[in-house]
């Protein structure tokens, strides 16, 4: 019973944070690795994809009702990210992530400094007219982030938001909305792979999904209510937390 309670609390917090700025996996993934240490890492990663997909679905639905989406942009990036996530999931049980973590740590430190120093970052008005070369950059980064989500996962939502802001010129609210759709695609790809290889513990995944949905619903409503400035502050907090989390893993 305590195992279920702790996993559900972690999933609720993950859904809440992920709905606003992404990065919910930084809570959910370490929690399940600690609470269920006797299972294979691939099985635990596969199990977290069910609640992540459920919570992200609710967030994406709520954002789509209030925020105008660029479906052409979403289709291209989500398709690439989906295929990349399949490849990442396939490699999750066989390759180490020790090489990637130092790179991610340095990247996140840079993101935190840039976001804090540039007060207008993610505050500009949304613009649907995106230059063709930026679409290619977005697709390339979607490929990299999609593979990362299938392979490791935590922090994917935050990375996607960064792409939609820094590369594609969106504000935080629109970037959060678009990132949710792409994250749905990567989660779905991982679920398809992990379920086909027997790497999902449904007895834990389903109750975690219910709690993730609840947290996601509350987080999305709060983000839509408070707007860009609130999301920017929350984004900074999550990035700083991510930096601390990766630094602890490394050192």
From TrEMBL:
<feature type="transmembrane region" description="Helical">
    <location>
        <begin position="99"/>
        <end position="117"/>
    </location>
</feature>
<keyword id="KW-0813">Transport</keyword>
<feature type="transmembrane region" description="Helical">
    <location>
        <begin position="39"/>
        <end position="61"/>
    </location>
</feature>
<feature type="transmembrane region" description="Helical">
    <location>
        <begin position="73"/>
        <end position="93"/>
    </location>
</feature>
<keyword id="KW-1003">Cell membrane</keyword>
<keyword id="KW-0472">Membrane</keyword>
<dbReference type="InterPro" id="IPR052017">
    <property type="entry name" value="TSUP"/>
</dbReference>
<dbReference type="InterPro" id="IPR002781">
    <property type="entry name" value="TM_pro_TauE-like"/>
</dbReference>
<comment type="similarity">
    <text>Belongs to the 4-toluene sulfonate uptake permease (TSUP) (TC 2.A.102) family.</text>
</comment>
<protein>
    <recommendedName>
        <fullName>Probable membrane transporter protein</fullName>
    </recommendedName>
</protein>
<dbReference type="Pfam" id="PF01925">
    <property type="entry name" value="TauE"/>
</dbReference>
<feature type="transmembrane region" description="Helical">
    <location>
        <begin position="230"/>
        <end position="248"/>
    </location>
</feature>
<dbReference type="GO" id="GO:0005886">
    <property type="term" value="C:plasma membrane"/>
</dbReference>
<feature type="transmembrane region" description="Helical">
    <location>
        <begin position="201"/>
        <end position="224"/>
    </location>
</feature>
<keyword id="KW-0812">Transmembrane</keyword>
<feature type="transmembrane region" description="Helical">
    <location>
        <begin position="138"/>
        <end position="169"/>
    </location>
</feature>
<keyword id="KW-1133">Transmembrane helix</keyword>
